[in-house]
């Protein structure tokens, strides 16, 4: 059997590690709360899973179109926003083309690009873990078919502001697709974040992506959505595997949308926990970038294995990116005490001058 060489070389998607015994699984940026009240019942609906779902997810698209004040054809729904990224990239990029994105960012981007046959152009984040939008604009050339902007950025938690995004878009040719990945948008309280919902209406080459996996707590059902230009979304629909969004997922997403107040209450609990945990690790002496999503980023570098080991001994399973850092999702309340204890041990473990040191009680 002859495999495409770039596919044969692809690592399989690495999922966040499950937790053993009483450890907390904080490795996949999941919502610790169950689905909103009534959502599981609504998902099952009349139980007619002997029938195929509506391939167009018309009810959910209509609800989203009303929410974003766009036409139904300017909404596309997929089995998770990750599948929408795949569809959009397949629609615009192939062999010989390039896709520009920040790095480090969402771990799925490199393989999604490789599958299209295109080449990844990874633009390093700035020293303070943010998108380097000038360098990203400089990286756009004749072969560039798409650029990905991830705000808040997974795993570093930084956002792209309105001013930054607008001046960046001024430098992106209209023929280049810009995917604005806002999987964690609901957790942002900083008003300077770019208003993706308005920007997408002004720039036909921008597609906004959101998901029900994070704030709405529906990661297990796989449903996300895109808002953008109809022709672009039609192209994405053409590359999609038909019928991937189940009727259960559509029902659950519709019911969840109708319960935004409850969703926002839970988000504010998680945002409160985020501040509490951020304060705890900073007070211990760790330098942690301002988090805008539902996770913290520990820039552990070569000490990533050791830092992840300390966290694990304290009952926290984070997501370790070898040689880079550890991402810890904001989950259960018990994590605060565990993180506080782990942070003190991490500070003791690191050599003076390590980039992860430098909170208020800087070591050395
Ligand atoms: C930045 C980012 N985009 C997209 C996704 C995909 O989410 P889903 O496919 O569950 O909608 C994730 C999931 O972790 C993510 O971190």
Automatic annotation (TrEMBL):
Domain Aminotransferase class I/classII large per the UniProt entry, residue ranges: 22-336
Residue positions, PTM N6-(pyridoxal phosphate)lysine: 214
Gene3D superfamilies: Aspartate Aminotransferase, domain 1, Type I PLP-dependent aspartate aminotransferase-like (Major domain)
EC annotation from Swiss-Prot or TrEMBL: 2.6.1.57
Top-level division of the source organism's lineage: Bacteria
Record-level Gene Ontology MF annotations: aromatic-amino-acid transaminase activity; pyridoxal phosphate binding
Catalytic activity field: an aromatic L-alpha-amino acid + 2-oxoglutarate = an aromatic oxo-acid + L-glutamate
Keywords: Aminotransferase, Pyridoxal phosphate, Transferase
Oligomeric and partner information: Homodimer.
Role summary: Aminotransferase that catalyzes the conversion of aromatic amino acids and 2-oxoglutarate into corresponding aromatic oxo acids and L-glutamate.
Protein name according to UniProt: Aromatic amino acid aminotransferase
Organism annotation: Mycetocola reblochoni
Top-level taxonomy: Bacteria, Bacillati, Actinomycetota, Actinomycetes, Micrococcales
Gene: pat
């Amino acid at each position: 059997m002859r495999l495409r060489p770039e596919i044969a070389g692809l690592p399989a998607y690495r999922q966040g590690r499950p937790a053993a015994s009483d450890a907390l699984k904080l490795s996949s940026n999941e919502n610790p709360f169950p689905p909103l009240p009534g959502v599981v019942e609504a998902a099952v609906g009349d139980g007619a899973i002997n029938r195929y779902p509506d391939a167009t997810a018309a009810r959910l698209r209509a609800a989203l179109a009303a929410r974003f004040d766009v036409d139904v054809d300017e909404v596309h729904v997929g089995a998770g926003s990750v599948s929408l990224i795949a569809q959009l990239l397949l629609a615009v990029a192939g062999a010989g083309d390039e896709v520009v994105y920040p790095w480090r960012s969402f771990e799925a981007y490199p393989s999604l690009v490789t599958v299209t046959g295109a080449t990844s152009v990874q633009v390093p984040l700035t020293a303070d873990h943010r998108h380097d939008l000038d360098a990203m604009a400089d990286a756009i050339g004749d072969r560039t078919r798409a650029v990905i902007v991830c705000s808040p950025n997974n795993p570093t938690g930084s956002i792209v502001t309105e001013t930054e995004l607008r001046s960046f878009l001024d430098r992106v040719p209209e023929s280049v697709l810009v995917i604005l990945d806002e999987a964690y948008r609901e957790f942002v309280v900083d008003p300077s974040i770019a208003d993706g919902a308005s920007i997408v209406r002004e720039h036909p080459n921008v597609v906004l992506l959101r998901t029900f996996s994070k704030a709405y707590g529906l990661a297990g059902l796989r449903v996300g959505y895109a808002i953008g230009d109809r022709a672009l979304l039609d192209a994405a629909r053409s590359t999609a595997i038909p019928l991937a969004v189940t009727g259960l997922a559509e029902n659950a997403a519709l019911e969840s949308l109708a319960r935004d107040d409850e969703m926002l209450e839970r988000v504010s609990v998680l945002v409160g926990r985020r501040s509490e945990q951020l304060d705890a690790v900073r007070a211990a002496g760790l330098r942690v970038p301002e988090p805008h999503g539902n996770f913290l980023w520990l820039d552990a570098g070569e000490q990533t294995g050791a830092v992840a080991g300390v966290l694990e001994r304290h009952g926290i399973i984070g997501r370790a990116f070898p040689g880079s850092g550890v991402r810890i999702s904001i989950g259960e309340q018990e994590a605060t005490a565990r993180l506080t204890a782990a942070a003190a041990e991490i500070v003791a473990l690191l050599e003076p001058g390590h980039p992860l040191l430098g909170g208020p009680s800087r070591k050395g």
